[in-house]
Write a structure and sequence with these properties.
Layout lengths: L1 H15 L2 H4 L3 E5 L12 H7 L5 E5 L4 E5 L14 E6 L3 E5 L21 E6 L2 E14 L3 E5 L5 E7 L5 E12 L1
Parallel strand pairs: 5-9
Antiparallel strand pairs: 1-8, 2-3, 2-6, 4-5, 6-7, 7-10, 9-10
Length: 177
């Protein structure tokens, strides 16, 4: 399915894009709309339904240390956690979370990151270290556009403090074990 969608995007782009843009294919990633979750207050049922995380994201500079849950999980949503929007390990991972205020604004300090800051990711029992290589904003449209030609990338995204913009932090993998 993914290959069919990508092929369709490429075909459409041949009619819309200039020759320079064709040489740099882009991947458009749909922003996941927050889901409304009904929280069961029955503790016995909550314990039996508790899911185990599949990983963890750690950003020492902003004191972030949050679990990650598989894409199909009810816990993989921006209302409760840092959310995996896309995962194509070892190539590309896209994570999103709220900025602003409140207890679930996990990316509220994402704008404090600088080039060469470190992000650690544990994902399906493997450890990865990334360095920030690019910080930019795009218009907030429900999608982000990233360069698909680059591999070993981690993208962190949240709403920018600039109105109607999406903050995107691009990181490159420097180590895994």
């Amino acid at each position: 399915m993914y290959k069919k969608i990508l092929t369709l995007i490429i075909i459409i782009s041949l009619f819309i894009l200039t020759p320079e843009q064709i040489n740099e294919p882009k991947r458009i990633i749909k922003k996941i709309t927050p889901k409304i979750v009904n929280i069961n207050i029955n503790k016995d049922e909550q314990v039996s339904q508790k899911e185990q995380p599949i990983g963890k994201v750690q950003i020492p500079k902003i004191n972030l240390n949050k679990n990650l849950y598989k894409i199909g999980s009810k816990l993989n949503n921006v209302e409760e956690n840092v959310t995996i929007l896309e995962s194509d390990l070892p190539s590309i991972i896209v994570l999103a979370a709220h900025s602003g205020t409140g207890k679930n604004a996990f990316f509220k300090d994402l704008n404090k990151l600088n080039i060469n800051d470190t992000i650690n990711l544990t994902y399906t029992n493997a450890n990865y270290t990334y360095n920030v290589i690019n910080i930019f904003e795009q218009d907030k449209s429900g999608y982000i556009t990233i360069n698909e030609k680059e591999y070993d990338r981690l993208f962190l995204t949240t709403c920018s403090y600039n109105k109607n913009k999406q903050l995107i932090i691009e990181c490159k993998k420097i180590n895994s074990n």
